[in-house]
Amino acid sequence: MTLSRFFEDIRLLKPLEYFEKFDITNWFFGLGLNNLSLFMESKGINDVPNYANVMIYSFISFGIIGGGIIYYYIIFLYKKIIKKYKLLWVTFLFILFTDQLLFNRSLIYLLIITNTFLRSENNENSDDIRNKTRSDKNGTIIQKN
After folding, report:
1. Where are the domains of the chain?
2. In angstroms, rounded to a whole number, what is the distance separating the alpha carbons of residues 12 and 84?
């Protein structure tokens, strides 16, 4: 696959060319969900589908504000996911860069699976307690030195 093919593919980078038609309001707040084809028709460009991958479409639909929130959540997931499951996050990110999953049940499944492997404060604290204590044969907890 050539580099020019990436820029021509509607799933990958072709929707980046639509940003040149945005005004300042569109940049900050987006066009709204599924309004890309109507917006492009108003600019004299016909037959533009309401489709792009999640990472680009979030900015087209929700602007810098909404797209930024989605990006913040993805970074939050990366920071909170358990180390041995980071590959799951990479897979999740790859899917977001190649398909349109916003408001699709497939996104819900991916989020459920990804959120299952997040570190929580309770899990980290329980590991610390386990490392600092032990129990005797009667089950009494004894502090380790």
Report:
1. 3-135
2. 29
What would the pLDDT profile of 102-121 be if each residue is shown by its tens digit?
767 777 777 777 777 777 65
Residue 33 CA to residue 83 CA, distance in Å, equals 35
Q: What is the pLDDT of residues 62-109, one digit of tens each?
A: 999 999 998 998 899 888 888 888 888 888 888 888 777 776 777 777
Written as one string, the DSSP assignment of the chain is --HHHHHH-TTTTGGGGGGGG--HHHHHH-S-TT-HHHHHHHTT-----S---HHHHHHHHHHHHHHHHHHHHHHHHHHHB-GGGHHHHHHHHHHHHHS--TTSHHHHHHHHHHHHTB--HHHHHHHHHHHHEEE-TT--EEE--
pTM across the whole model = 0.65
Please name every residue paired with 142 in a beta bridge, in sequence order, or none if there are none: 134
Q: Are 28 and 63 in contact (CB under 8 A)?
A: yes
Residues 61, 64, 67: CA angle, nearest 5 degrees = 60
**Biggest CA pair distance of the chain:** 80
